[in-house]
Amino acid sequence: MEAAAAAGPPAPGPERLFDAHRLPSDGLLLLSLLLYAPVGLCLLLLRLFLGLHVFLVSCALPDSALRRFVVRVMCAVLGLLVRQSQPRQRGLRARVFIANHVTHFDHNVVNLLTSCNAPMLNGASGFMCWSRGFLEVGSTGSRAELLESLKAYSSHGGNPPLLLFPEEATTNGRVGLLRFSSWPFSILDVVQPVGLQVQRPFIAVSTADASWVTELLWTFFVPFTIYQVRWLPSVCRQPEETREELAVRVQELLALELGVVSTRVTAADKAEHLKRLRHSPPAPYVPVPHQPSAGRPQASPSLPATEDTRLMGMAQRVKEVLPHVPLAVIHKDLAQTNCVDATIANLLEGRVPFTPSEAEEEPSLLGPSVSNAQHPTSAPTAVQPQKVFSRSPEARHLSLQERKHALFDYARRRYTEKYGMTQSQGSR
């Protein structure tokens, strides 16, 4: 992720790829949602009753164009509107669809347009798998067994195409795509990318930790949810192209079609982001007026007192680790990262330029010697900086790297000694 960020504009982090709050932050939208709430509750109760009939009809009718048309019309009554940019061309004969993942019902939406099956990779099997429209592929104890099952399924010409989501996790669909896994591209050499965009009024399309039941209830609550399906031309694997290269190429094509960026964030990064959110809850939710300018909100005097107190506490923790860094620089970077570890890394690796004052430089230079006297066994050997300015560029570069590593080791040790027990408990 750091290499990708250094190659061009900063890539969006996990906090921008996933929505943490369902309700809008705009005060006007929140007021409109409150006024709409009685109507939404009535729609929810009515659509729960109608949704049962849609489920029964979809189970009774065989898989055909008539069934897809009838179910699609009934889903429109439920507030689920599906549109496609251009119908899929049958002559391409792609038997593997590759789509981005936005909601828990993406496979159901694509199945309303063409016959396809999405395998259940994790979750309940049996009736729940079948009722949600997933394909149960049997034993998925390992990735090799899953691939063998999917290859055996695709080898039969009478089976519908496979619909796979290489992101392996949902996003908000507005900013970027997660890094595509390479295993879906090892089933067949020809895949067809499918771009999905979802819009709905009042509330976010999906949140990072919501279940499919919660998403279904919110879908029935809002007036409508619009799914836009974009069919892209089939992509063939080149003779010298690896699976990883093909995955990157398809990811770039989908990102260009959807108008988002292609990131290196993975599903594992999303799980780690959710873990941090649970152990470090954000500030209390306060609606703010709508601001037309895009970008992350900066720290300002209008923030609540609790937010200022929290930022001051985080800045003090960074100041204890890096005493030579001015507090103004720490506050500015914390307002963007909202994370002590990320701010320390930015300051140590030079991403945030600053000019330390002479009064604050003295403790940082004396810190290692004092710490060595208190902890002679755990403290690393301090590297003394050169006193004379060397004429050789190589010597000056080595001196800079030695000072940087010494400062990094010292800061990491101080942070571990002071907050190591807290971090170890939070990571469990």
Q: Explain this structure to me?
A:
By secondary structure, this protein is of the alpha/beta class. 49% of the residues lie in helices and 9% in strands. It has helices at 2-7, 14-17, 27-60, 65-77, 106-111, 127-131, 143-155, 212-221, 243-258, 267-279, 305-321, 327-337, 340-348, 358-374, 393-426; strands at residues 80-84, 96-99, 118-119, 134-135, 162-164, 176-177, 190-199, 225-231, 235-236, 261-262. Strands 1, 2, 5, 7, 8 and 9 form a six-stranded mixed beta sheet that branches. A two-stranded parallel sheet has the order 3-4. Helix 6 links the parallel strand 3 (118-119) and strand 4. Helix 12 crosses helix 13. The chain starts with a helix and ends with a helix.
Helix/strand layout:
Layout: H1 2-7, H2 14-17, H3 27-60, H4 65-77, E1 80-84, E2 96-99, H5 106-111, E3 118-119, H6 127-131, E4 134-135, H7 143-155, E5 162-164, E6 176-177, E7 190-199, H8 212-221, E8 225-231, E9 235-236, H9 243-258, E10 261-262, H10 267-279, H11 305-321, H12 327-337, H13 340-348, H14 358-374, H15 393-426
Parallel strand pairs: 1-8, 2-5, 2-7, 3-4, 6-10
Antiparallel strand pairs: 7-8, 7-9
Helix pairs in contact: 3-4, 3-8, 11-12, 11-13, 12-13
For the structure shown, list the relevant keywords.
6-stranded mixed β-sheet; 9% strand; disordered N terminus; 428 residues; disordered C terminus; 10 strands; two-stranded parallel ribbon; single chain; 49% helix; alpha/beta
